[in-house]
Write a structure and sequence with these properties.
Elements: E1 2-8, H1 14-31, E2 34-40, H2 43-59, E3 82-88, H3 97-106, E4 110-115, H4 124-131, E5 135-138, E6 154-156, E7 181-186, H5 205-220, E8 225-230, H6 235-243, E9 249-252, H7 260-265, E10 269-272, H8 275-283, E11 288-292, H9 297-301, E12 306-309, H10 314-325, H11 328-350, H12 406-422
Parallel strand pairs: 1-2, 1-3, 3-4, 4-5, 5-6, 7-8, 7-10, 8-9, 10-11, 11-12
Length: 423
């Protein structure tokens, strides 16, 4: 059975996992069933890995090793058959460096599906992997002109999240009868959630989203079921504070990205602050509106999402949502036909891939310059992150030998623990 290593995140942004689901579905159809391995770009995990790698190598101390069930800085991937960057704008910043090095060490052929940014330059070893890749797609046509793709046969195709839902999960609008159900995909602001997984608020975006959702619940809540959908845990207390006492509202969340197929299937139309809220909606055959606040509106266009520009008047939003509610069956049918067409284009691209090992140039001995550009991470703010400077892990000194009495021994151990906690 084939072994494929995917770059993605777990327990950080479920939108990344929607992209992963789409990539896995594609590669299972193109290459067959396979063992799926992940390189987990969760920023907590990769930051820990970078800070502590040298200390772990020197000391062998398990307290400073990466223990996540994903590709580690010293993982042997020579057994693997393919590496896949599963979408995301985050395919070239520091969080991905270890994966590139493991690809080179394992001589892995590589594909890049649904890239969400395009820097002006890359470190030489990352450019080598890209130049030798078997397939590259971007989810915004504007990225095609980036100089990093000058040696690559790159093409535009919608983000693979469009293909995240398998066919038996797709919705038939109105199959339950009764009133249409509206999903509002909520994102908290930087005061309530973590950087890079929150809505921007430089122009009052958060207040607008909150006021618009409150208005839509009051406008449609008497005649429609309303689900406020949260993708990240920090959004839950904010959503409960703002919306739980409004009419006919359910607040939905899960830690498990695969649960969102059933959460979204309870909706007939969604209005989303998150691009991949539109992605999973479209994959299920559910029409959506994107509340666009940055360049990722182009990704949502690849999901056939309808755009509500920032600060659209409530009256215009009402009219457009009402119009969409009146033509759900046609919109859903068009979405599923577009999904089939997109899948066929991807499968044509991926059919006949030759998974031969690739001989890459040796890794450079000196540090490489960082990629030029501003990485977009997750679905929230777009900002270059200032990473913490590496710090040595505390040296764990052996505990003193037991004293003559139990009381002295306990006091000695307590003293050691206090010293460790103060470090």
């Amino acid at each position: 059975m084939l072994n494929i290593a995917y770059s993605t995140t777990r327990q950080w942004n479920c939108g990344d996992e929607f992209i992963l689901f789409g990539c896995r579905n594609l590669l299972e159809k193109a290459l067959g069933r396979h063992n799926a391995i992940i390189y987990n770009r969760n920023p907590d995990i990769r930051r820990l890995s970078r800070i502590n790698l040298d200390d772990a190598a020197r000391s062998g101390n398990p307290a400073v090793r990466l223990n996540d069930n994903s590709v580690k800085p010293d993982s042997d991937l020579s057994f693997a058959d393919l590496a896949c960057f599963a979408g995301s704008p985050e395919w070239w910043n520091e969080l991905c460096e270890v994966f590139y090095k493991r690809i080179i060490a394992g001589s892995l052929p590589t594909i890049f599906l649904g890239l969400g940014t395009a820097p002006q330059s890359l470190p030489s070893f990352e450019q080598e992997v890209l130049d030798r890749s078997l397939a590259v797609t971007v989810r915004d046509p504007a990225f095609l002109s980036s100089p990093v793709f000058k040696k690559v046969n790159v093409r535009y195709l919608p983000c693979p999240a469009l293909l995240s839902a398998v066919k038996n999960l797709e919705r038939s609008i109105g199959q339950w009868g009764g009133a249409s159900r509206l999903g509002l995909v909520f994102m908290a602001g930087p005061k309530d959630s973590v950087p890079n997984n929150c809505a921007p608020d430089g122009q009052g975006e958060c207040a607008y989203y909150q006021d618009l959702f409150t208005h839509l619940i009051k406008k449609f809540g008497d005649s429609h079921e309303i689900s406020v959908i949260c993708h990240y845990i920090d959004e839950l207390p904010v959503a409960h504070r703002l919306f739980k006492d409004l009419p006919n509202v359910k607040i939905r969340y899960s830690y498990d990205a695969s649960d969102y197929f059933e959460i979204y299937r309870e909706c007939d139309l969604t209005v989303s602050t998150r691009v991949h809220g539109c992605g999973i909606s479209s994959s299920l055959g559910i029409p959506s509106f994107i509340l666009s606040h940055d360049f990722r509106g182009a990704t949502a266009a690849g999901f056939k999402a309808h755009e509500l520009k920032l600060f659209t008047s409530f009256e215009e939003a009402d009219a457009r949502i009402t119009e969409a509610l009146g033509s759900l069956a046609d919109l859903s049918s068009d979405l599923l036909a577009f999904k089939r067409h997109t899948e066929s284009e991807y499968l044509e691209l991926l059919s006949g891939l030759r998974l031969d090992k690739i001989s890459y140039p040796p890794l450079p001995a000196t540090p490489q310059p960082a990629a030029q550009g501003v990485p977009e991470t997750a679905e929230g703010q777009i900002a270059a992150k200032e990473e913490p400077k590496p710090q040595s892990a505390p040296e764990l000194k052996p505990a003193p030998q037991p004293e003559s009495s139990d009381g002295d021994h306990h006091r000695s151990l307590l003293s050691v623990l206090k010293r460790l906690l103060r470090r």
